[in-house]
Design a protein that fits this description.
Shape: elongated
Largest sheet: 5 strands, antiparallel
CATH architecture of the largest domain: 2-Layer Sandwich
Structural class: alpha+beta
Number of helices: 12
Oligomer: single chain
Order of helices and strands: HHEEHHEEEHHEHHEEHEEHHEEH
Number of strands: 12
Low-confidence stretches: 31-40, 326-332, 382-388
CATH class of the largest domain: Alpha Beta
């Protein structure tokens, strides 16, 4: 064998040995990494099943606060993006539990998103699983805190609103007593007393109605509601007020549109819009009520030719007890609750309430609701529809 051949064989043998060692080293590295991964992610027997069964937001992190396991509720709440925690406050709580080697808890207020549109109010509890891993369980109290704030605000506003008519009734009663010998004064004070009593009764009734729509879920026992009948009933309930003020109310042609919900609540919502339009219309004006369908959404629109609403007030007209014109509201008997009731009823039915208005040109309030097909028992042959 020549010297050149021996050199070539040596080179080939050296390459083969090098490749073999490289393969062995790579296999050893992979095996070691797999062992380390298993040690870092493996949870005690049954722990994964228990955590996955939790209905509360929960997750487990390793020593680097990397998420090993998270329930769908934790992801939906925005606590993690799948591998890491989104809030430094939670990381500090986990570090404290790991450092103290015992459970830790904290009440936290965290932004739901980067924009901070909604605040999460949480009670978070962290408990060590072992020297590195920590279990985090969260109680989301956001809705409870929000409802409690709404309740306190509502009670405060209601107390304030009730003071005015109650005080007026008390003063008028005293004035009536002092004017007992003057029949003209008695009649004048009695008329004002009657007006304040009527205003007080309306306010109390709307407070009761508002409390009912806030607590009710109309979709729990929902039924198919024919919106043509809702509109007709709402207009009929306001007919006396419209005639006494000389305002005409016009209903559009039959639409044969349906939605799912509570018929009485929907009638109340439309009635409030029509009554509001009549109250803010001048004698001889007209109010129009129409129905139409667009992209699976039913729209109930109530338009008037009244004084209109300033642009600065448009974003607040659906707030509780908000009045765009205090003096005008007193003269029309407005309570500031009617439009708020409309908004809540629309939202409770999976819809929304909108407003368009221009000063001096009038306003259009629209309730938008999900449309459903007409029930089979209510479907009318085409010829009968055309006659209708």
């Amino acid at each position: 064998m020549s010297a050149a051949s021996i050199v070539v064989l040596g080179i080939v043998f050296g390459l083969a040995v090098g490749v073999l060692f490289a393969v062995l080293i790579r296999a050893a590295f992979d095996r070691g990494s797999a062992v380390l991964d298993a040690q870092s992610t493996a949870l005690p027997d049954g722990a994964t099943a228990v955590i996955s069964a939790l209905r509360e937001p929960a997750l487990v992190v390793d020593g680097s606060n990397e998420v090993l396991l998270a329930t769908p509720e934790a992801v939906a709440l925005g606590l993690t993006d799948g591998r890491s925690l989104r809030h430094p406050e939670l990381q500090r709580l986990l570090d404290e539990a790991r450092r103290e080697c015992r459970p830790q808890s904290a009440d936290l207020s965290l932004p739901r998103s980067a924009a901070g549109a909604r605040t999460l109010v949480l009670t978070a509890r962290a408990a060590p699983v072992d020297a590195a891993r920590v279990l985090l369980v969260v109680d989301d109290r956001s809705d409870a805190v929000r409802l409690d704030a709404v309740r306190r605000d509502f009670v405060a506003n209601t107390s304030h609103e009730l003071k005015t008519p109650i005080g007026a009734v008390s003063l008028l009663a005293e004035a009536l007593d002092s004017a007992a010998d003057d029949p003209d004064q008695v009649r004048r004070f009695a008329a004002r007393l009657s007006a304040e009593a009527s205003r007080l009764a309306t306010l109390v009734q709307q407070i009761i109605e508002f409390s009912r729509v806030q607590g009710a879920d109309p979709l729990e026992e929902a039924e198919a509601v024919p919106l043509d009948e809702v509109v007709r009933a709402a207009v009929e309930h306001t007919r006396v007020g419209a005639e006494s003020k000389g305002v005409g109310v016009v209903i559009g042609k039959k639409s044969h549109l349906w939605t799912l919900g509570d018929r009485a609540m929907l009638t109340t919502a439309v009635q409030n819009l029509v009554a509001n339009a009549i109250a803010f219309s001048s004698a001889g004006g007209h109010v129009g009520v129409g129905l139409r369908s667009r992209d699976g959404i039913v729209e109930i629109a109530v338009s008037d030719q009244g004084i209109g609403i300033a642009e600065d007030d448009l974003d607040r007209v659906f707030e509780r007890f908000y009045r765009t014109d205090q003096a005008r509201s007193r003269s029309t008997g407005g309570t500031g609750l009617g439009l708020s009731i409309v908004k809540h009823i629309a939202e409770n039915h999976g819809g929304e309430a909108r407003v368009w208005s221009r000063l001096g040109r009038g306003s259009t309030f629209t309730i938008r609701l999900p449309e459903i097909p007409a029930p089979a028992s209510a479907r009318t042959p085409r010829r009968e529809k055309e006659r209708a």
